[in-house]
Amino acid sequence: MSESNPLLETEGLPRFSAITPAHVEPAVDQVLADYRARIDALLATPAPRDFAAVVLAGEELEDRLNRAWAPVSHLHGVKDSEALRDAYAAAQEKIVEHASELGQNRSLYAAFRAVADDGGFGALPRAARTLVEHELRDFRLSGVALEEPARSRFREIANELAKLSTDFENAVLDATDAWSETIADESMLDGIPESGRAVLRAYAQEKTIDGWLVTLKQPSVQAVLTYAKDRALRERLYRAYQTRASDQGPDAGRFDNSQRIEKIVALRHEAAALLGFHDSAEESLATKMAPSPDAVFAFLRDLAARAKPVAERELAELRAFASAELGIAHLEPWDVGYASEKLRERKYALNEEELKPYFSLDAVIDGLFAITGRVFGVTLQRRDDVDVWHPDVRYYDLVDAGGRVFAGAYVDLFARAGKRGGAWMDVCQSRFRHNGTTQLPVAFLTCNFAPPTATTPSLLTHDDVLTLFHEFGHGLHHLLTEVDYPGVAGISGVEWDAVELPSQFMENFGWQREALDLFARHYETGERLPDALFDRMNAARHFHAGLFLVRQLEFALFDFRIHREFDPARGARALEILADVRREVAVIVPPAWQRFPHAFTHIFAGGYAAGYYSYLWAEVLSADAFDRFEQEGIFNRDVGAAYRKAILAVGGSRPALESFVEFRGREPQPDALLRSYGLVT
After folding, report:
1. If I label 304, which of 226, 380, 402, 481 is the partner at 20 to 30 A Cα–Cα?
2. How far apart (Å, rounded) are the C-alpha atoms in residues 547 and 541?
3. Residue 594's closest CA among 337, 333, 217?
4. Is residue 471 annotated as part of the catalytic site, yes or no?
């Protein structure tokens, strides 16, 4: 069977070119059947309930399932099609049902409990003990203690939530792909730099259209909202983008996620209540660093108290500038990006277009790899013999100082049709030592940058550079693990509000002169990023930091409150809660027809439900961690080795706070974060 179905192969990297939607269900069916048979056999035997027989066996079964499913899940995100969607949805339902069955299997729970209760448990390696402890916790969070009819209802909810999340994400992707506007008259693009126009031209050529095509893909959105002088064009794009998958806007009702939001929040609340939690926010914290909902609210509101006065001053200045210099008497949300860029140019003599020639993608990648080499002693070597899903995808081996390949990464960086927006890292396969062999960790790194044009390479904004560094930080967390068990290796098992530490940590290198000198060179002349330009870039680092921070606080508070305050009698009240949050922390209030929750895939289709605050929570950790590098040298190999050993190598094998304290010698302090936003000096 494995010869005819590439998803059943257990050796080597996935053969993406051979995978078709027709392979998905048969592969998942076979893997799940084998999985159930192995579990039944394990529970039927009177053999000792030890770590190898129970826990390692479970890791082997999970790893085989992941090897079959990870390529499918990834293709669903980067090469979507109707046939793949259907196959994905059908197989996902079976996997979720299987996971629910497994999580509620009391005999299997008893077997894990027996491992933990055994007298030799304390002698196991730390990672092994943590793995068992996490498994026992997850059994409880899967409803293993529930009685009928609650047990069956909990499983029904899990299945329904998985389907709703997929449908939510599909609706956002479809809504994003559905809207476009053809521009025949180039004068309508006045203000958009040549690099932005080239992207819009490429979108048109892709669809064999004359002229330029404005779309809802991020490079297009960024180009128009930041640079287009045509205010009406900015408004049309903003309206289409901010009403995606909703009851408003040009495609009102066509992909509407309104009812999905209602159902998702209601079902999460019901599931949490079945487990004995007050609400799904409280349940969310069972696997996070934050000790309580009150602690989350206190953290967010303390930041809001610091940031909002700064944001109000920034907005007042922006409004005055827009009125006096741009003729915009009433600043609307679709004017903010445009006016901000003009104000930044005025204050700092800096614009992104001036920087982009110094950030050609290939050079940035080379620089990122050079930084990785200097800090962590790791080399990345490109391979051209790996099967990929698109010609733009690259594959790299990670090589240690002794020349040993110990990990690998797929890198897929350009926006295109059928690819979900945003940027992310995901697991292809995890490090796993068993049966005398070591399976190497492999990651997927995905972004949506503007592709090269006929005349220029792919040129990144500085924000794009930071995004690439961010996702690579996640990748290093996965790839540099030294833990042998997939369940707690790399990012697995790490508290969700600490998982952004390594990613946000890497962003800091994008601001350092020493680091920029490794890659920031003009793509035509080879000229180093001039000191004057670097100085202006750093002077502008805190530009509108307050406005950015209150926006993040708006997202985080909305997410946490919609899960914390759900009342079955009143429903999700998404727009009501959002309006209340905006009254508390926002300084720019969008129009009543704006529908940002309807495309908020992080919380309704991703892993950040009641956890979006994690970005800011982890930023305290990452800023404080990087502060040590700033004090002792950003390329200090000893500090890099200490960070790798304390944070990256251990993954989820111990609490994140313990790892942080080992590296920093104390608990985290917010000072570095506040400095990074310019809120303190």
Report:
1. 226
2. 13
3. 333
4. yes
> What is the Cα–Cα distance from 293 to 296, expressed in whole angstroms?
5
Give, as one character, the DSSP assignment of residue 189.
Answer: G
Q: In this structure, which topology does domain 357-539 adopt according to CATH?
A: Neurolysin; domain 3 (1.10.1370)
CB atoms within 10 A of CB 346: 11
- Which is the catalytic residue, given 135, 169, 181, 471? 471
Q: Which fold has domain 258-350+544-612?
A: Neurolysin; domain 3 (1.10.1370)
In the chain (681 residues long), the average pLDDT of successive 10-residue segments reads: 81 96 98 97 89 95 97 96 95 96 96 95 96 97 97 96 96 96 96 92 92 95 97 98 98 97 98 98 96 97 95 98 97 97 94 91 97 97 97 97 96 92 95 94 96 90 96 98 97 95 97 97 96 94 95 98 97 97 96 97 94 95 96 97 98 96 96 88 65
Q: Which one-letter DSSP state was computed for residue 571?
A: B
Nearest partner of 225 among 311, 323, 332, 360, judged by Cα = 332
Nearest to residue 142, comparing CAs of 283, 29, 293? 283
Give Cβ neighbours of residue 670 (< 8 Å, ≥ 6 apart). Answer: 620, 624
End-to-end Cα spacing for the chain: 64
CA–CA separation, 37 vs 8, rounded Å? 17
Q: Where are the domains of the chain?
A: 6-145, 179-242, 258-350+544-612, 357-539
Cα(10)–Cα(2) distance, integer angstroms? 8
Are the beta carbons of 431 and 456 closer than 8 angstroms? Answer: no
CA angle 351, 424, 503 (to 5 degrees): 75
